[in-house]
Amino acid sequence: MSDRSERFVIGLVAGSAALILSFFLRIFTGGLFIPELAAQTLFSVMPGAVESQAVATLGSLAKYSAFAGATVGNLFLYGALGVLLHRTYRRLTQKGHFNVLQLSLLSYSILFVLAVILLETTEVITHTLPIHLVSLYLLPPHIAFGFILYIMFQRQVARPEIINQTSLRRECSIDLRRRQFFRIAVAGVVASAFLFYGVDLLSPKSSKPSDKRASQPVESSSSFESEFATPELASFFASEVTRNDRFYQVDINIVTPVVDANSWRLTVKGLLNNPLELTYEELKSMPAVEEHATLECVSNKIGEDLISTALWKGVPLKSILGKAQVKPEATYIVFRCYDGYDVGIPLEGGLETILAYEMNGVTLPAEHGFPLRAIVPGLYGMMNAKWIMEIELVNNVHEGFWQRKGWSNNAEYQIHSTIVLPRGALRSRFGDLGSSRVMLGSNVPIVGIAFAGDKGISKVEISTDGGKSWQIARMKEPLSKNTWVLWAYEWNPPAEGRYNIIVRATDGMGKVQPAELRKPFPSGSTGYHTVDITAEA
Prior knowledge:
This protein is α+β, with helices and mostly antiparallel strands. The chain has helices spanning 3-29, 34-45, 48-58, 61-94, 100-121, 131-157, 166-202, 212-215, 223-227, 234-238, 280-284, 317-324, 347-350, 427-430, and strands spanning 265-270, 276-279, 289-296, 307-316, 332-337, 342-346, 354-359, 362-363, 373-375, 388-394, 416-421, 438-439, 444-451, 457-463, 471-472, 474-475, 485-491, 497-507, 529-536.
């Protein structure tokens, strides 16, 4: 191994120690962790079309892949610093003066500049810090980095000159390779720990008592369920309301933002006669409403599972704006959030929004927007802002975070329907649905969901012959005008063989679900969901 490679590995080892210390500072004191910031910045500047493809390919792993790459990149930067700083070390020691602080301050300065650039570039950040605290939190890891570099560089200098002898050089080279392999392995283990366990450690752990209403299935006794009562469908019907731990979660934060309810304030400003500032307790003391509503991510592809339903409790936005007295010229409502996210919705229609602080009967979980999130009827999840800090009334169309990257600002839900059984989708939302085997001579329930936002669903149709003919499925009464509809169709396969099952829905306005298969970007996916099944004797 060459001297440069050895110094690079020394930098990796010292950098691993710096990352460990920085990581624990992030956990216990809320400090800055540069890989987290770098991944946040990447998603912040990524064009919407690229982000959509990343989510379509990797799902929720997309942002964690960015975090993994940022961690590895940070380690390689430390390796490069090991090579660079060795040259500085040699020049200064030849002049007779050097100390750990000089190595530390050089690396510190480079990483501080990088952090400032990332902070200035990103639009959204999980954990905001003023610049003086950034400078403070970066100092201990780089003192550790400089100290380890200094010790390891000294060992290199102290190596005996007899190393030039051929036999001893070979022996030392073998020993060196072993040690370098060990160091690389240590660095790899450290990186892996960050990638696979780091996010869980950084994520907030709820200290609130659990509530059985959030974790237990919702009971129902409708005739619809009675007719289709089978053990295979029990979990399907019981999960019409999605448990909190099964509810989909999409945002660009690597670590869930943690907001202190005691210091949190909701600022209501803009084109108002009476601007407001409300505490968490003041908000909760206002008259509240409860409503079931389905949310869906605009990145959700046909047949996939970025969709869920919950019971939300909160204050009608109309009540708050009534107190604030909206001026006639206001046309748009802008939500601004703790993590820097922003989005705008039209005032007309937006007044039906609920500002929710409870979800399925418990305090809104941090990962779903504690202390306050918007539930906006008829609009994709990206318009339903989480961790809301500010509401502003403006007189112009506001393009939010994702809209500035090319996603549609007219984010009305597309009509779509999904087959859940047999061999269908949404298993992560409906739990254990049992076997999907289709046996000849038995009645086979085909069930699923249909959704069109606040337009409702008027009809669901099933084809078991690849679209040649269509039969009407039975629909369960929805929990509200803003939720998905459960549907079911009983089918008896006429013969053994392979069947192509297709579903399509018609919304409450009479519009039929488009057959054209279209990707999510920029305004949501369309197309029929199909499954292929085999009837067995």
